[in-house]
Amino acid sequence: MFVLVRTSAAGWQTYQPSQLPLGAWVADDTLPLLDLARSLIRGPLGSCLLLSVTQIDPLHAARSPDSADSQSSDYIRTAWTELQGSFAEYWNQRGKNLRQNMRKQRNRLAAEGISGRLRVLDQPRDMAAAIERYGALESAGWKADRGTAIHPDNAQGKFYRRLLEYAARRGEAVVFEYLFDDRVVASNLCLRRDEVLVILKTTYDESIQSYSPAFLLSQDAIELLYHEGRVRRIEYYGRMMEWHSRWTETSRVLYHLTLYRWPLLLQLAAWRRRRRQAVESRSGH
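^ thats the sequence. predicted structure below, dont judge the formating
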């Protein structure tokens, strides 16, 4: 099943809203994606000349070499964490700076009489309040200036509340919150299924960055997941950042697939791209 949107009179692509980390399609993983795309462009899409399948995870659909009628292109590099062995083994493999920093932060909190603790929410009745608290943190940070922050009353907030309430009824929603005493200072919105935890959104109180609240949350959440044994892999699905590398060494590249109805169209597209690049190069000089 593919959810597609028309991009031109003869072009289609997978539905790709900003909240969706991967393109909107599902298939038996024994069916090659390129074969599925060809069956679409030559079948139910009628006069389609160009089909783009966006943000593909090579873990689920291996990246095929370019062919006469298809091309793939990099999207982003994303990280994941495999929960293997024990938490003690995992933590000992982290960098010395991370381990020392976390120890210093916890000692500092203790010295100042602040109790830091992790709270886990997974019931439908908890999601509305969790989104409200998440929104309060994010709306006070840099995302508010860009207009991308979650708020209980905006479209983003309403979407995530509906999503998490629905998932919680299926036992698949998890919200991790980190508290200083009774004050929420960091929050992760997550989905969990088949031993995989996907972190959808993360935020923290930017007024107390010196305490590394998001890192304290990550350490305690990963330790809890190790002890529970229900999750074997944590997926971030966002663009890999420097801080991801402190928690994991593993990453992979998500990619786009573009299929043309005839090889000649691919050759024409490549010629137009080269011509545009040449013009831009000349104008740059």
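The chain has a mean pLDDT of 93.
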